[in-house]
Design goal:
It contains 9 helices and 39 strands. Strand 35 (444-448) and strand 36 form a beta hairpin. By secondary structure, it is of the alpha/beta class. The protein has a 15-stranded parallel sheet that branches. It is 17% helix and 38% strand. The chain folds into 3 domains: 64-306, Pectate Lyase C-like (3 Solenoid), CATH 2.160.20; 334-495; 500-586, no CATH class.
């Protein structure tokens, strides 16, 4: 009986395998190459075959595919109902022609576009330039011209340049147009110049990071966009409704013929750490949007933006009513995108350097592109923004610190490939002429945590090269995740309160003077050493000779560990074990 049951089970298993269809194989990504003229072998790129037009490659691409575009001049391209497509250009890849495309959203029907994405999800355009100069020779130029249009779509536009987009009704560098603010698009390192409106965001959400919008001029057209506007958020006028949400950070919005940022239609705008300079009429004009959050921007002068009642002495770009602009920064904001280990030099603007260490040497993410397992490197990078304040942008510092009067702000976007950020705030002899070399050793970087100033967990000072540093990783305080725009201040312990000082060497090895171990050493000093003449003499000599030793130890991580484990930790263990013998409250 047992054999019969076993045989029946095996038979059922075999039958089930014959009638159940095999699962489909996992789809693999494909790279579609585009070369001017279509002759891949003739370019020396080792691409065995290639399309001549971007449009043909886009039509062939499926979910997860990449279109790789070689240097050269190309026609327009568009896509509808596509998902997870990346269009990546090599240096010199340029679109120089347009084509009709039905946008049919808001006040725009058909438009002459160089790149159009409609009703699609997660579409990436990177490294391709768009030059609309040739469009002026066409009859359709008299209508609407758009460089890049995302209509009801999501994705990312990065490292592109759009210029010379003019039309009789409207000319736009980049148009983000949605429905009920659902689509969201990220723009990073996008440059728009010499157009009528730089970037419009209608009925959608968009983040602008490190973009440059400059030299917008009027050319006929309709409404406010006839005047030359850098960024338009919401649809102007009463005929259409399209309130939008925009976050504009680390951008340069300059030399536009009328307005830098125009906000209307109950739209919401956050604009931080931007250079908003030289726009002819207003840097920010709130024409019916919600109150604009425009804190922490550079307006072209240290006195801030001009407002006829709220800042009448301001000599920077003017702002309208319903714009919050205090505090502002007092020098050009420095923004740089690093794709490998490197330094953002903001010494002239903010006395600051930001050293970035990536998790991998090239800060890259590799992904498989086709069945031959060819790998394309997609560089992510980190965008670093550095700004300087004239005075404390927040509340007073802790009472045991004195300020050096130096306040900066550091923002790092896209930290997923960042291992460490080191901030170096430099100072001069003149700035510390009343502070002895001894107390310079107590200089530290503090950060604003949203509620109070706190000392960074890994901060010290290089007294020979005269800078205060703080190293920030995923495990420090603040952490990399906190660098979304974080004020830092240079502080030192007051020379008038030497007994409030900690131990130089122990602070060097623990990386902070707030460690519990240092509290034990400080208690022993105050309770045992200072009350008697011999102990007080020892403390005096120690404070005289230990600063350079501590400075040397702080620069060498292996030495810091060796001194902590082999010398300081054992002392702390003994003092903790014997504390009931010397601590006054227990005697």
């Amino acid at each position: 009986m047992k054999k019969i049951l076993t045989s029946l089970f095996v038979l059922a298993l075999v039958l089930s395998l014959t009638v159940v269809p095999a699962l489909p194989a996992a789809a693999s990504s494909t790279t579609w190459y585009v070369v001017e003229g279509g002759a891949g072998d003739e370019t020396g790129l080792s691409w065995t075959s290639a399309f001549a037009d971007i449009q043909d490659a886009v039509e062939a691409a499926r979910d997860g595919d990449m279109v790789r575009v070689a240097a050269g001049n190309y026609g327009a391209f568009s896509m509808v109902n596509k998902t997870n497509i990346s269009i990546i250009g090599d240096a010199g890849a340029t679109v120089v022609a347009g084509d009709w495309f039905a946008i049919d959203r808001g006040p725009i029907g058909d438009a002459w576009s160089m790149a159009a994405v409609k009703d699609s999800h997660n579409i990436i355009i990177r490294g391709i330039d768009f030059d609309g100069a040739a469009l002026s020779e066409l009859d359709v130029y008299r209508e609407v011209a758009v460089g890049i249009a995302y209509v009801g779509s999501t994705g990312r536009i990065a490292n592109v340049r759009v210029e010379n987009t003019f039309g009789a009704e409207l000319g736009v560098g980049v148009a983000i147009i949605g429905h009920a603010r659902e689509p969201s698009v990220n723009l990073a390192d996008v440059t728009v110049r010499n157009s009528m409106a730089g970037i419009i965001i209608w009925d959608a959400e968009a983040d602008l990071d490190g973009c440059t919008i400059t030299r917008m001029t009027g050319n006929g057209g309709f409404g406010i966009m006839d005047s030359g506007v850098g960024i338009v958020v919401g649809i102007p006028g009463d005929d259409w409704q399209g309130p939008a949400v925009a976050k504009v950070k680390g951008c340069t919005i300059t030399d536009n013929n009328d307005i830098g940022i125009y906000v209307c239609d109950s739209s919401v705008v956050e604009a931080h750490f931007n250079n908003i300079v030289g726009n002819a009429a207003l840097g920010v004009f709130n024409d019916g949007g919600q109150r604009v959050d425009a804190l922490h921007n550079w307006w072209g002068h240290g006195t801030g933006p001009f407002h006829p009642t709220e800042n009448v002495t301001g000599r920077g770009n003017a702002v309208s009513n319903n714009v919050d602009f205090r505090p502002w920064v007092v020098a050009d904001v420095v923004t740089a995108t690093l794709t490998a280990d490197g330094v953002v030099n903001a010494l002239d603007q903010a006395d600051t350097e930001v050293w970035v260490t990536m998790r991998t040497p090239a800060a890259t993410t590799a992904r498989t592109l086709n069945t031959e397992a060819e790998t394309e490197v997609d560089i992510i990078g980190a965008t670093v923004t550095v700004a300087k304040y004239a005075e404390n942008p927040e509340d007073a510092a802790p009472s045991r610190f004195i300020t050096l009067g130096k306040y900066i702000d550091v923002r790092v976007a896209d930290t997923q490939d960042v291992a460490e950020v080191e901030i170096r705030l430099h100072y001069t002899d003149a700035e510390v002429e009343n502070v002895s070399q001894l107390y310079q050793t107590f200089f530290r970087l503090l950060w604003w945590d949203g509620t109070e100033w706190k000392q960074c967990s890994d901060t010290w000072v290089n007294t020979s090269d005269k800078y205060i540093w703080a190293k920030i990783t995923s495990d420090t305080t603040p952490s990399l995740a906190d660098l979304g725009g974080t004020p830092f201040g240079g502080y030192g312990s007051s020379p008038g309160v030497p007994n409030g000082c900690g131990c130089f060497i122990s602070t060097a090895v623990y990386g902070t003077d707030a460690a519990d171990e240092i509290d034990v050493l400080r208690d022993f000093r105050d309770a045992v050493l200072l009350p008697n003449s011999l102990g007080a003499s020892f403390v005096s000599v120690y404070y005289s000779v230990s600063p350079p030793i501590a400075d040397f130890i702080s620069r060498c991580e292996p030495l810091r560990t060796l001194v902590r484990v082999g010398f300081v930790d054992p002392i702390v263990v003994v003092l903790t074990w014997s504390q009931d013998r010397w601590w006054p409250s227990n005697s």
